[in-house]
Structures are given as structure tokens and as C-alpha cells.
Design goal:
Blueprint (H helix, E strand, L loop, with lengths): L3 H21 L11 E7 L5 E7 L6 H10 L1 H12 L8 E6 L2 H14 L27
Parallel strand pairs: 2-3
Antiparallel strand pairs: 1-2
Helix pairs in contact: 1-3
Length: 140
Amino acid sequence: MESKRQQKMASLLQQELAAVLQRDLPHLFNGGLAPGISTVRVTPDLGQARVYLSLLLSTDADARLAAVQDNVKEIRHALAKRIRKTARVVPELIFFHDDSAAYAAHMDQVLSTLHIPAESKEVDETEKPKLPKLFNSKGE
């Protein structure tokens, strides 16, 4: 469980990184749409931040993630300019691809193809499961 301090820092980083990627450094994506930031997780010492990028609308998600990872230094510097009065130290940024939405769509597709028969409301006495006897006839 994250502390309030970690949660505040993660929230700040999520907002400011989104602004950095969309406004300050759009040239990193060659005129394309900047990736969204789905989650930020910060270590207890606030030294590292794991940033999960949502790359749903892009066909070349791996190339866009590589572009972000290649420019981590520039992104961190732009982030430092934005949060210099709020945070004492800018954490090391580690970017990951967040594929949870694609996984959810896949699971929805799998579940929709399942055939689940409807449950009958009437249960015959012969179909009821028989419970094992725990005691003998004397009650022991």
C-alpha cells in the first residue's frame, strides 16, 4: 500500500508528465499523438517512478515506447522545470507499456464466445447431491 506522500507524488508526476509529453515535447512523436499516462507508481524513497503509457491508438506501440525510452533524459529535464518548486528531487523515470485495456478487450471477446447453459429453476430430488454421513447411527 502506498503512503499519502507516494500517492501525492504519483499524482503530480502523472499530471505534469502528461503536460510535458503533449505540450513541451510533441516533436518526440513526429507529429503523432502523444501517449497517455495511465498509471504512475513511485517507490517509497521517491527515487524511482514507474510510468505506464497507454498506447492504444498507435499501430507501432513498440516504436513509440522506444522513442520515449530513448529520450528519458530530455523528458526528465522538462519535468524538472515544471515541478522544481514542488519537488525537491525529480525521480528516475522508467517507462512501461500499459496493455491492460487491450487485455480487457481480449477477455471480453473470450467471455462472449463462451456458451453457458441457462440454469434450470426446478431441481429433482434425484439430482440433489448426497452429503456424506459424519456420524454413525448412534450419534458418535
